[in-house]
């Protein structure tokens, strides 16, 4: 389930958003949002975190303004929350997702 999309920002960087299986519980999905120099670098960052199957095919679900704002205001430029979460649900740093997967 790698449904997602991207947008190119005025400065030339991109924000990529993907729906991926939760590392600790593959039946659940998470929406991961990455800010990077280009799409390939964003996917490389995800791959380096253990999301080996992360691929962006098409632009079916580009990042929303909320997702862009969340990732641009996070120091790591990489946030997540449950797939299909409400707009008022919080965004989390990727380190919390990695921590959850180690405790499962």
What can you see in these coordinates?
The chain is α+β, with helices and mostly antiparallel strands and 104 residues long. It has one domain (3-103). It has 3 helices and 5 strands. The protein has a 5-stranded antiparallel β-sheet. A hairpin with a 5-residue loop joins strand 1 and strand 2 (14-21). The protein is globular and about 35 Å long. The two termini are 21 Å apart. The model has no long low-confidence stretch (mean pLDDT 86).
Which SSEs are present, and which pair or pack?
Elements: E1 3-8, E2 14-21, E3 29-36, H1 39-48, H2 65-72, E4 78-82, E5 92-93, H3 94-103
Antiparallel strand pairs: 1-2, 2-3, 3-4, 4-5
Mean pLDDT metric: 86
Report helical residue fraction. Answer: 25-40%
Share of β-strand residues: 25-35%
Shape: globular
Radius of gyration: 12 Å
Compact overview of the structure:
By secondary structure, this protein is an alpha+beta fold. The chain has helices spanning 39-48, 65-72, 94-103; strands spanning 3-8, 14-21, 29-36, 78-82, 92-93.
Keyword list:
104 residues; alpha+beta; globular
